Amino acid sequence: MKAKTHFFKNLDLTSILVPEEDGAFTGTKVVCTVGPSCQEVDTMCEMLDAGVVGCRVDLTWGPLEFHRKSLANLQQAMRKSRRLCCTMVDTLGRELMIRRQVKIGEDGWPIHEESFAVTAGQQVIITTRTDVDASSNVLPITYSKFTEMAVKGDTIYIGRYLVCGADSASLYLEVMDVQGDDVYCIAKNDAVLDGLLTVFHAERSVEGLANVQNDLPLLSDYDKECLHILAQDFEIDFLSLSYTRAAEDVREARRFLDSIGMSNTKILAKLESRQSLLNFQGILNEADGIIISRGNLGLDCVPEKMALVQKTLVQACNLVGKPVLLTRVVDTMINTPRPTRAEATDVANAVLDGVDGILLGAETLRGRYPVSTVTTICNISRAAEKVFDHHYHYEHLMEVAIDVGEMTGADGNTVPGESEEENATPGGATDTEGPAPANGNKAAAPPLHQARGPLAGVRRDDSWNSVTSAGAHHPLPSLGVAAKTMARFSQVASAGSLAGLGLGRSAAATSAYQRAPYISKLESIASSAVRAADRVGASLIVVYTHTGKTAQLVAKYRPPMPILTLVVPHLVSDQLKWKLEGRSSARQCLISRALLPVLAAPSPSGDQLLQEAVAMAGRVKLVKPHDHVVCVQRIHDDFCVKIISVDDMGAGIKRDDTVMSHSVFGSSPMAVQGSSGYDSPRVHNNPIGNKFGPMPPAIITTGNSFTLGGMGVGVLSPAGLAAARGSNGGRQ
Which EC number(s) does the record attach to this protein (predicted)? Predict the structure, then answer.
């Protein structure tokens, strides 16, 4: 896997030091953890206005009634601020804790009145006995089989819930002996233990997995009870699955959610241990997103490898287009109004790496400056986004797709959805492999439109012809082929190693190939829309969607402009009744980078909906007069990419009396010079546009649009242009 590099186009420090514009759009998302510091409705409103797009309630700590109140207050805050916010529930799962006496405060939050001071070199006993009270010398643990896990020389970490591991509430112990129900340890550092104390058994092996894992269930009885109760009163958008170890954990959680009527809830797998890293590909394949829990993960990995682990995980999520969130970024802002230099740099580097969002923990749960923390994160993220190399990110995705395709080609197999003409030799004959016939003559090649080998029987999608053939003369595969290969990577790579991507090697691969044609259409449309937006210097991308999948694929390519996601509610039936779905899809889009979801009212006219969307974008200053907007929509079974202009007032779509054809992917003999201002200085000197050769011209209409070949992209002949004008009401 290639490393991503960051090269700044502008090295002028004078311009770099210019303050960021307040109120500008921030593509990187911020999710907060709700606690005593931010549970009030007014505080939540301030945080939503500052940039929070999601709120998490953590079942690890706090009574159910407190979390119910948090979700109820969030609903009030959304109505009051008129902003969407997704809800996330974090599970207790396999967490190990120290058993202590607790009381409930006036605000409903549990409180430990007593703290313990431990000095370096002191003996500390971790015991599984239930008749012992916690003290500075003896710490009773909630897991009865802990003595079976500990071995002399192991490192045990005990710290306050949601601490960073570097403050006074963090204690590192070395196991000296195990006797009966007791684990005898020596303290490595001074610490003051306060609040809920969690226990983490660090992996003793340098490379593999040597520790005995606890056999606690993925979802505790308390988790199941709380989820069942909360689902009756609130719409839960995401389940944060703590201590995910393997793909089967995600499948188990999915089965449980379906059983209690939470089939719309998406699962975010939390990576918190070495075991989750070793099984990461399978987890990524099953989960809807990833949370990199750097607190525990940092304890299970050596410090010099943690940065590489983070970058690898983020890059893998980017490749398959699934959101990835990062934790533990500005821990010092729990008590101070300003982050350290290292923390500010950490946030910026995470944005440059490609994370979708930041998940705040103790900073908002018990921190003194929850609103300032959100504002700081957004400001740092916005500054980093300005220098994010969008062109390189786009090229990187395409190059990885090509690399995967070449690995497959080494096995003599065809890229999914690729036509046989594209594999033809220059003389027109196709290469064939296999035993020669008995008469000694070379075996006859199969028909050009007939799939060979493992692809036999898979229907070929002819709507790709106009896309893939455009780059046939180029030494690199065309964008269509690369996008289809990327779709194949998205479907198969997580099920095993990259070496297992060859056709016919597994049932999972075969199943993915059978799904490839439709997924490839979405991939091609998404990547083409991003490149079109860059070529014409668009200020906004508008995507129509029902489930959010298309919008997430567009966001995967990290365009520099916001992606206005119009989620149109739709009717679904469970064979007993009909219901309108769409609100959850809109909220679930919130954690994907650059997506700005809007719940749109169903309309018989897509153009009218687009007109209202552009007008709204103008009101919130996402677009200005004469700006270009790229629109991605699906009309029946056809996909359409079109480019429109904002009118002179910045309040809607510019209407022209003529239909213009303009190539946004390469030169076109039909391009109308000086028409409607579609030409941009970025068109002729752009790495995205030139990397993979010219593409067929897209049909640009100002106002109404039409589609060709089921894709909305094609080459028009003069007769076709006349027909297009006729389809727009015969206007000349």
Answer: 2.7.1.40
404's torsion region: left (phi>0), alpha (psi -120 to 50) or beta? alpha
Q: Is the pLDDT of residue 297 over 60?
A: yes
Reference 171, options 142, 193, 149, 154; nearest CA is 193
Q: What is the three-state SS of 37-86?
A: CCCCHHHHHHHHHHCEEEEEEECCCCCHHHHHHHHHHHHHHHHHHCCCCE
Domains delineated in the chain: 27-94+216-387 (3.20.20.60), 96-201 (2.40.33.10), 392-421+448-521 (no CATH), 529-727 (3.40.1380.20)
Write the DSSP string, 343-392: HHHHHHHHHHHT-SEEE--HHHHT-S-HHHHHHHHHHHHHHHHHT--HHH
State the Cα–Cα distance between residues 171 and 198, nearest whole angstrom: 10
Q: What is the dihedral of CA 230, 233, 238, 241, to 10 degrees?
A: 10
Q: What is the mean pLDDT of the chain?
A: 76
Torsion, CA 681, CA 684, CA 687, CA 689, rounded to 10? 110
Please report the pLDDT score of residue 523 as a whole number: 81
pLDDT-based confidence at 85, cuts 50/70/90?
very high
Give me 727's structure tokens.
């389809």
Measured distance CA(421)–CA(472) in Å, rounded: 10
Q: What are phi and psi of 348, to 5 degrees?
A: -60, -45
Average pLDDT over residues 22-45: 93
What is the C-alpha to C-alpha distance for residues 159 and 200, in angstroms, rounded to an integer?
A: 9
10 Å Cβ neighbour count for 626? Answer: 14
**pLDDT tens, residue by residue, 635-681:** 777 788 999 999 988 888 887 633 333 333 333 332 323 333 333 33
User: Which residue stretches of 559-676 are H helix?
Assistant: 583-588, 606-619
CB-CB neighbours of 453 under 10 Å: 14
Q: What is the pLDDT of residues 591-635, one digit of tens each?
A: 999 999 998 877 766 788 899 999 999 999 999 999 999 999 887
pTM here is 0.77
